[in-house]
Write a structure and sequence with these properties.
mainly alpha, two-stranded antiparallel sheet, 9 helices, about 5% strand
């Protein structure tokens, strides 16, 4: 990941904590650079219906294998690229997300809720804030269908690397036992 582009995204949202919306400033040059490097997207929030979101998720899911999601997750262990870890969660949740129309529950879709997911009838999709959270913390909105869609969209651009020996060692290594006195 390009360090400069990452810093541009960080500065847009964070300075010793979240910046208020009216404090978020970015130059055209920085914005264009971050977009070119894939860390920022349009500043407009996209409105998408629940049904379109579910349809897009199902189409994207067919472009990948579970093994490629596992490989990306495991290969992130030695590199500490937390932004590559949520794809496994998104992939597995997308697998259980059958194509369906919005079924009204209390506020969210009842079918999505039954799967442990949240989805309103109309979704506000802010790719920049989700990418900030993904890069900084490995993703926050893991059970939101809009995050699953976003994650799968990014999955198309990830170079899939096979886990190396160090990744495997980290994955299977038992925690060190504490010394007792």
């Amino acid at each position: 990941m390009d360090k400069k582009a990452k810093q541009i995204l960080y500065k847009y949202y964070w300075k010793n904590g979240w910046l208020d919306e009216n404090e978020r400033l970015i130059t055209e040059e920085d914005y264009n650079y971050a977009c070119k490097k894939g860390t920022m997207f349009t500043l407009d929030v996209e409105s998408i219906s629940h049904d379109d979101c579910i349809c897009k998720i199902n189409k994207l899911l067919n472009q990948f294998s579970k093994q490629s999601a596992v490989d990306i997750f495991v290969s992130s262990l030695s590199t500490r690229n937390v932004y590559n870890r949520s794809i496994l969660s998104s992939y597995i949740q997308a697998e259980s997300l059958i194509k369906h129309d919005f079924k009204s529950g209390n506020f969210y879709c009842q079918i999505c809720e039954n799967l442990g997911l949240s989805s309103a009838f109309n979704i506000e999709l802010d790719r920049n804030i989700m990418n900030f959270e993904k890069i900084k913390w490995g993703g926050v909105r893991l059970n939101n269908v809009e995050y699953i869609l976003f994650d799968l969209e990014l999955f198309r651009n990830i170079v899939i690397t096979k886990p190396n020996d160090e990744d495997i060692k980290i994955l299977i290594l038992e925690p060190k036992k504490r010394k007792t006195n």
